[in-house]
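SECTION: protein entry
WANTED: fold as tokens:
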Amino acid sequence: MSLWQDFKTNDKKPIHKWVHYFPIYEKFLDRFRNTSVTIIEIGVSKGGSLQMWERYLGPMATVIGVDIDPACKKHEEGNIHVRIGDQSNKEFLKDIVDEFDVPDIVIDDGSHVMKDVLATFDYLYPILSKNGVYLVEDMHTAYWSEYGGGTNDDDNFIHFSKKLIDGLNANHSRGMRTPDIITNHTFGIYFFDSVVLFERGTTPIKNAPIIGKNN
């Protein structure tokens, strides 16, 4: 069953997701199905999303929900674990990683406040598994002042992510940009309506053959 079918036929705990997120999920997360994958979803709400990930990713998946509301602890079951704390608190995040090991997938569907999103990314992205996926949802809030965003605000997560594109291409900048974790350990940065997605990986460019018609 596809993730979209699972969502449409769900009769368990409520799931709140935008419809256009599902092709993104299936494109980037399908390869993790039925593997020993660890996923952290920030923002538990009514618990339905955690159940969905457990069903979709399979019985070997470790599903971790993070929320600031203690009432969300009741959604623990099976391979679903819930930890209560502030997503911007790096010591709290470190405790989760120490307990469950580094995540393969992070979905930030938490506060959607810019300072929280940036703090979480700053800690979790560098330690994500080498072929992992980091997905930030509901980034229409990057344009809303009540979430610390704004169309012309350089600190909103959309603008922050745009700047990382230069890091992705730093090896081609002729010394104008110093390579960093984005350069060396990121395969791609993708923008969708209200979503920014980072895919860990490497692109070997040194001494790489150029393959074309005449080779």
